[in-house]
Write a structure and sequence with these properties.
The complex is a heterodimer of chains A (about 200) and B (about 200). Chain A has about 200 residues and is an alpha+beta fold. Chain A has helices at about 5-15, 20-35, 40-50, 55-75, 80-85, 95-115, 170-185, 190-199, and strands at about 125-135, 145-155, 160-165. Chain A is about 60% helix and about 15% strand. In chain A, helix 1 packs across helix 4 (about 55-75). Chain A starts with 6 loop residues before the first helix and ends with a helix. Chain B has helices at about 15-25, 25-40, 50-55, 60-80, 85-95, 100-125, 180-199; strands at about 130-140, 150-160, 170-175. Classes of the chains: A alpha+beta (about 200), B alpha+beta (about 200). Chain A: Pfam families: COMM_domain (PF07258), COMM_HN (PF21672).
């Protein structure tokens, strides 16, 4: 599949068609640094002075490159598709080669960075438990009531939270039975068929 | 295969896999590593420099170092949890394939420190909150905006409660008048008597 470029994007990248392949390589390196660590506007100033152009043009050029690389990595374009997509932008042969090399070298890393940015739900971190027996209370002396106390630690995008839960042993048995059945569901023929088809 | 040190359950697969890695070092190095792991479990801090020096001779990679620390932590903590004696642990580890000298040196370290480990595990068991300090003051109310002559004693209480997750201590303050305070004190005395019956 081919990437479709918006006009604004093409405009931003048109600046790169006018410079030499070494400059394009330098820009690619800057874009990769920005994808890894975040943008640094001071670098734009330096580059703009060296090339005698506006800071904005440099800014747009680098951002256009970053967008090109992340979109191609996201869609997992193969070599031919990538080359066909950038054909329409008007780069010369060397620049296209450079861009292809940078794309192939870095796409795995970009995909790892992108996968860390997905939406996060609160997920399991730790579970502590304690088995108690209630022997007496203000209202009733001489009882023996077993209870189980849980502290569930969950984590949601870096923020840890704890939930306190309490249950009696019968409920706990039922809970473990239901969760066990959920695990066994993975081994049912229906789930196996689906997993086989995904792979 | 049921193992006492795993609480009469199967030994986890990953521990079985790590036994072969642990067998690669000499039993003296194993003893030194056990000492470091026990220090870590008692929250006294682990000296990673020493650990690297110990594992360098056996040419462990970083993954192997992490795996061996994890396996030793599991074996020692679950042996302390299920209150096994050193002899049983030694026999069962030999059944799993750990060489005799390694098993004996590990069990010697375990027996030396099992009391401290169990005491530490007892303090880190699940607790909802800790009562740090109680402060009290007896006041005598002379009059108020509602009634000119009140002439009643009352008790102001401040309890400092520590949350074990965050470590912060929050003060809980409340005031109790005379009759309610008598009832409170009486009930608490009855609870104390009941606790004494059980110890």
């Amino acid at each position: 599949m081919l990437l479709m470029f918006e006009d604004q994007h093409k405009e931003h990248l048109s600046f790169l068609t006018q410079v030499s392949p070494d400059v394009v390589k330098e820009f690619c390196r800057i874009s990769m640094e920005f994808i890894r660590k975040g943008t640094n506007p001071k670098i734009f100033q330096g580059a703009a002075q060296k090339l005698n152009v506006d800071v904005d043009t440099v800014h747009h050029g680098v951002e256009g490159l970053m967008y090109l690389l992340t979109e191609s990595s996201k869609l997992m374009l193969n070599e031919i598709d990538f080359q066909d997509s950038i054909m329409t932008l008007g780069f010369d042969e060397d620049t296209r080669q450079t861009l292809l090399e940078i794309y192939l070298q870095n796409r795995r890393e970009i995909r790892t960075i992108l996968s860390e940015m997905t939406m996060d739900l609160p997920h399991y971190h730790n579970l502590e438990w304690r088995f108690d027996v209630q022997l007496a209370s203000r209202s009733l002396r001489r009882q023996t009531t077993p209870t189980v106390l849980f502290k569930l630690h969950t984590e949601d995008s870096g923020v840890k939270d704890t939930t306190i839960l309490q249950t009696d042993p019968v409920n706990l048995l039922h809970l473990t039975k239901v969760l066990d059945e959920a695990l066994q569901e993975m081994k049912s023929p229906y789930c196996r068929r689906i997993v086989r088809n995904i792979k | 295969m049921k193992f006492r040190f795993c609480g009469d359950l199967d030994c986890p697969d990953w521990v079985l896999a790590e036994i072969s890695i642990l067998s690669k070092m000499t039993s003296i190095k194993m003893k030194l590593l056990c000492v470091q792991v026990i220090k870590d479990m008692l929250s006294e801090g682990i000296d990673y420099e020493k650990v690297y020096k110990i594992t360098q001779d056996a040419k462990f990679e970083i993954g192997d170092v992490k795996a061996s620390i994890a396996a030793l932590t599991f074996i020692l903590s679950s042996a302390a949890k299920y209150n096994c004696d050193g002899e049983t642990v030694s026999n069962e580890l030999q059944q799993l394939g750990l060489p005799k000298e390694h098993a004996t040196s590990l069990c010697k370290s375990y027996s030396d420190s099992s009391d401290r480990l169990q005491a530490h595990l007892r303090t880190t068991s699940l607790r909802l909150s800790h009562l740090e300090k109680t402060e009290w003051r007896v006041d005598y109310i002379l009059s108020s905006s509602e009634l000119k002559e009140v002439n009643e004693p009352c008790v102001q209480m401040k309890l400092h409660v520590r949350n074990p997750d965050s470590g912060t201590t929050t003060p809980v303050s409340f005031t109790v008048d005379m009759d309610k305070f008598r009832i409170l004190l009486n009930e608490l005395r009855q609870a104390e008597k009941m606790m004494d019956n059980f110890t």
